[in-house]
Structures are given as structure tokens and as C-alpha cells.
Write a structure and sequence with these properties.
alpha+beta
Length: about 140
């Protein structure tokens, strides 16, 4: 259906979507680890590195869409939107480890939450970033 000025917005939107899906995305290995000792945070690490070769894509994998500021790098975006990314990645795979020790009537608790490093397809658009897990 045409609008009053003669443009076909549906066709242009569809072409833009197809062109972004066909160009492919960059692949990054992303991992996260959070450790506590007696309920106090002692270490938090978010590791990001660009993949040297493309990763295999899932056919029906979920995706995360994040708002991107102009010229913002992936590292700063994930630091800003860390909680959204962690919730998204935790739905794929999450490892929790707890270790309690008793030493002379003193209890020490060490807990760690780990999102194993895995490959993600990251597609940069003008004002957003799409992150999709891969194999």
C-alpha cells in the first residue's frame, strides 16, 4: 500500500531488514564471572574478544536488542547494559559454585557465578546492537 507521497514504507523496511540480515555480523567471544567471599564482592570480570573465524549460527536462536549510542564500542555498551546481557546469557547457560569452609569456629563462604565464554554474533546498526548466541 502506498502512502500519500508515493513511497512504499513496507517495501523499504523489508529491504533494510533483508540487507542487514544478509551482510552478516561480527563474532565475539564473551564471558562473565562474579565471585563473592562472605557475601562481599571480590571479583567481577567481563571478557570480550573478537573471534578469529566465524562461528556457526543457530537457526532458531533468541536475540538481544540493545540501544547503542553513536560510535559506541561493544565493550562500553556491555558495561552499560551489563544486567540485561547477563540475564540474556544466563538463559542459555549459567554455572554457580559455592564452597563453605569451617576453620576454628569461623565460616567462610566462597560463591561464584560464571557465564562460560561462548561465541555471539553481534550486528551493529546505527542506533542499536543485536546479539545472538552461536554454537
Amino acid at each position: 500500500m502506498r502512502s500519500r507521497n508515493g513511497n512504499c514504507p513496507f517495501i523499504f523496511t523489508s529491504l533494510a531488514l533483508i540487507s542487514t540480515l544478509c551482510t552478516g555480523a561480527d563474532n565475539y567471544y564473551i564471558g562473565y564471572r562474579f565471585a563473592t567471599k562472605n557475601t562481599q564482592a571480590i571479583n567481577e570480570t567481563l571478557s570480550i574478544s573478537k573471534a578469529m573465524k566465524p562461528c556457526n549460527k543457530f537457526t532458531d536462536s533468541p536475540l538481544l536488542l540493545l540501544k547503542r549510542l553513536p560510535n559506541e564500542k561493544l565493550e562500553t555498551l556491555l558495561e552499560r547494559e551489563q544486567s540485561a546481557f547477563i540475564e540474556f546469557a544466563a538463559s542459555q547457560e549459567l554455572r554457580v559454585k559455592s564452597n563453605d569452609t569451617l576453620n576454628k569456629a569461623q565460616i567462610q563462604t566462597l560463591n561464584s557465578l560464571t557465564l562460560p565464554t561462548r561465541c555471539y554474533a553481534v550486528e551493529f546498526n546505527d542506533d542499536s546492537v543485536t546479539i545472538t548466541p552461536t554454537k
